[in-house]
Amino acid sequence: MGRVNQTLILFDIDATLLSTRGAGMRAMEAAGKALFGESCRADGVQFAGRLDPLIMRDMLSNAGLPASRENLEAFREAYVRNMEELFRNPGLGVLMPGIQELMTRLDALSGVTLGLLTGNFEKTGLLKIRSAGLTTDRFEVAAWGDDSAHDPPERKHLPPIAVERYRKKKGGDPRRVVIVGDTPHDIACARAHGHVAFGVATGKFTSAEVRASGADHVMENLSFTEEAAQRMVHG
Q1: pLDDT value of position 1
Q2: Which of 90, 106, 172, 228 stands the most exposed, by the fewest C-beta atoms within 10 Å?
Q3: Measured between alpha carbons, how far is 232 from 116 in angstroms, rounded to an integer?
Q4: Which of 97, 100, 128 has its CA nearest to residue 21?
Q5: What are φ and ψ of residue 218, in 5° steps?
Q6: Could you tell me the CATH superfamily of domain 7-20+93-234?
Q7: In the chain, where are the structural domains located?
Q8: pTM value?
Q9: 3-state secondary structure string, 174-195?
Q10: Strands ordered across the beta sheet of 196-200
Q11: How far is CA 163 from the centre of its chain?
Q12: How far lies 110's CA from each of 8, 105, 233, in Å?
């Protein structure tokens, strides 16, 4: 299949595009405890940069329970219900510095397609996006935390899914794929497929830590709109 002169930019959600100030973690822990008891807790579980199904597996392990399909499906449904209830309150999501301006700048560039590559489930990820005031339809392709067919799923499985969805939508391969995220997990999944790894230090990791994980580009945040756009599109 022929290649087209396009750049696909895939954004992580949490701590890259926006912050919900821990709402997702609280909703997930509340769902786990309600279903499986107080021992289904988030203590010692890493959230940053990981897939929601993996986080749920760890919480079930804390409770001494198997990560069976039935347990995971019940957990997910309860979590989604909690998130839908939480996000009835407006303004829960807050954009990271420069994001709105960067989205506007990238939207104006020809040959650029915006997408999402995230550990969130689709329903909860879209709730977060909308709560922060972003329109979801500007992200033309996405790979979500439960899209991997592997067991266990890993973040590195997601870039090919996003690229395939781009291919079906656009009729050709992207010339350049950029993955933007705030954790070493984001950087590793980009490098696993030879994509451009663009790190931001807006989450729990410093710019030095993101750079040490192998990022091609690192910025403290994305408020320097023109510089960020140029690096993403042209390198």
Answers
A1: 37
A2: 90
A3: 15
A4: 128
A5: -140, 135
A6: HAD superfamily/HAD-like (3.40.50.1000)
A7: 7-20+93-234, 23-86
A8: 0.94
A9: CCEEEEEECCHHHHHHHHCCCC
A10: 141-143, 112-117, 7-11, 176-181, 196-200, 217-219
A11: 15
A12: 11, 11, 10
Quick one: tokens of 110? 């020809």
Token pair recorded at residue 7: 């750049």
**Phi, psi (rounded to 5 degrees) for 114:** -95, 140
**DSSP-assigned letters across all residues of 55-68:** HHHHHHHHTT----
Kindly list the averaged pLDDT for each block of 10 residues, start to end, along the chain of length 235.
70 97 94 96 90 96 96 98 92 94 95 97 96 95 94 94 97 96 97 98 97 98 96 92
Is the previous residue joined to 152 through a cis bond, with omega within 30 degrees of 0?
Answer: yes
Q: Would you state the structure tokens that stand for residue 25, as one six-digit string?
A: 């973690």
Q: Which residues contact 126 (CB under 8 A, 6 or more apart)?
A: 136
What own/partner pairs with CB < 8 Å and gap ≥ 24 does 41-49 have?
48/14, 48/15, 48/182, 48/183, 48/185, 48/203, 48/204, 48/205, 49/12, 49/119, 49/155, 49/181, 49/182, 49/183, 49/184, 49/185, 49/186, 49/203
Please list, residue by residue across 71-104, b when 16 or more beta carbons sit within 10 angstroms of its beta carbon and e when fewer do.
bbeebbebbbebbeebbeeeebbebbebbebbbe
